[in-house]
Amino acid sequence: MTQKPVYRLLRTVAILILLTGAILSAVLTWDAGRKNASVILPAMFLIWVLSPFMVLLFAGYRFKRYAEHRYISYYLFLIVLSVFSVIAYSGVLNPANVKTAAVFLFTPLLSWVLIIIGAVVLKRSAAR
């Protein structure tokens, strides 16, 4: 199936935003853990923070078999999740009493929950 130029453009923009979001998230994660004496703990946080990005990047290959409107939703989800993650990790919207580590623990967890819900909804709608 050949994609229309608009869909190819959306795909390219979404993947670029996803990769940029992953890089910025990695930098912000590493920066937040720079004062930690351990190298292992910041590395584990980095893997945890990057895991939703990697899953979303590779999930795009499975979406090629679905109708165009479904992978448009997928690409828009990539953009929204990437922007949300970078905003969360930057600390712009954090309340004053929230510990930095909590943001780096719960943002990927929320991302995973949204990814799983989206996958279930997509699977059920494709089964109809």
Plain-language structure description:
- By secondary structure, the protein is mainly alpha-helical.
- It has one domain (5-127).
- Helix content is 77%, strand content 0%.
- The protein is built from 4 helices and no strands.
- The chain has helices at 5-32, 40-59, 68-90, 100-127.
- It is elongated, with a radius of gyration of 16 Å.
Terminal CA distance:
21 Å
Strand content: under 5%
Radius of gyration of CA atoms, rounded to a whole number: 16 Å
How many distinct beta strands? Answer: 0
Shape: elongated
Count of DSSP-assigned helices: 4
List unreliable stretches of 5+ residues.
Answer: none
Mean pLDDT: 86
Overall helicity? over 70%
Sketch the topology as an H/E string, one letter per element: HHHH
Estimated structural class:
mainly alpha
Number of domains: 1
Largest sheet: none
